[in-house]
């Protein structure tokens, strides 16, 4: 049954889901050597996204896990707090655990999505949202979400702030590998926003 569902997902949607999942994985915690090696093996075309991916690969080739761990900690953990707070609530209201988080939790409940038991971050963090979007596209938690449902989720929970976050990540003073990842995320959010804008409501 599951294999039949897999066949129905167009390759471009699978690639979109892969990129969402990759961003989520990179933002959930510092990459190990295996993930850095995978990043280093990426290549891109002449598009903005392709060039950003190629730049990320170049940085990943010369990045060691210990260095990227200290970069990740400076950006997102820090003493007291990191340089960036990667949460929808913070970006949209200036405070953590606000209405955007409550709205997201309601939407997650209607879709049957729950926070993993070993995850203690609020669900509106950028890594979780990227993973949720990837999961919806390929139907990791049920049937693949139709395009209008993907669009509604993206426009409500990701579009209002993710591009701004990725720009901040690109320019953060502690960003090196993550500056390159910020460029990838920013270019991808722009493509998604434009693609959803062109689909009929």
List the helices and strands and how they pair.
Elements: H1 2-7, H2 11-28, H3 33-40, H4 48-61, H5 65-76, H6 88-93, H7 99-111, H8 126-138, H9 147-158, H10 162-171, H11 177-198
CATH fold name: TorD-like
Evaluate the radius of gyration. 17 Å
Weakly predicted, low-confidence segments:
1-6
What would the average pLDDT be, to the nearest integer?
Answer: 93
CATH architecture tag: Orthogonal Bundle
Secondary-structure element series:
HHHHHHHHHHH
CA-to-CA gap between the ends? Answer: 30 Å
- The percent range for strand residues is under 5%
What is the helix content?
Answer: 55-70%
Number of helices: 11
Globular, elongated, flat, extended or rod-shaped: what is the shape?
A: globular
The top-level CATH class is Mainly Alpha
CATH homologous superfamily placement: TorD-like
Give the helix/strand class: mainly alpha
Number of domains: 1
Largest sheet: none
Number of E-type strands: 0
Structure description:
The chain is mainly alpha-helical and 201 residues long. The chain is 67% helix and 0% strand. It is built from eleven helices and no strands. Helix 2 (11-28) runs antiparallel to helix 8. The chain starts with a helix and ends with a helix. The relative contact order is 0.16. Residues 1-6 have low confidence and may be disordered.
């Amino acid at each position: 049954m599951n294999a039949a569902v897999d066949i129905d997902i167009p390759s471009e949607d699978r690639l979109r889901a892969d990129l969402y999942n990759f961003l989520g994985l990179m933002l959930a915690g510092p990459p190990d050597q295996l993930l850095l090696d995978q990043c280093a093996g990426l290549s891109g075309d002449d598009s903005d996204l392709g060039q950003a991916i190629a730049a990320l690969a170049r940085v990943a080739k010369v990045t060691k896990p210990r260095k990227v761990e200290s970069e990740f900690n400076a950006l997102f953990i820090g003493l007291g707090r990191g340089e960036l707070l990667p949460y929808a609530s913070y970006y949209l209201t200036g405070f953590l655990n606000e209405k955007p988080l409550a709205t997201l939790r309601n939407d997650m409940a209607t879709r049957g999505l729950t926070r993993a038991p070993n995850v203690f971050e609020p669900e509106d963090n950028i890594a979780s949202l990227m993973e949720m979007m990837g999961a919806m596209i390929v139907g990791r938690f049920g049937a693949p979400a139709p395009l209008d449902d993907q669009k509604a989720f993206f426009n409500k929970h990701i579009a209002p702030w993710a591009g701004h976050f990725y720009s901040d990540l690109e320019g953060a003073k502690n960003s090196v590998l993550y500056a390159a990842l910020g460029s990838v995320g920013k270019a991808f959010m722009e493509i998604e926003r434009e693609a959803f804008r062109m689909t009929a409501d």
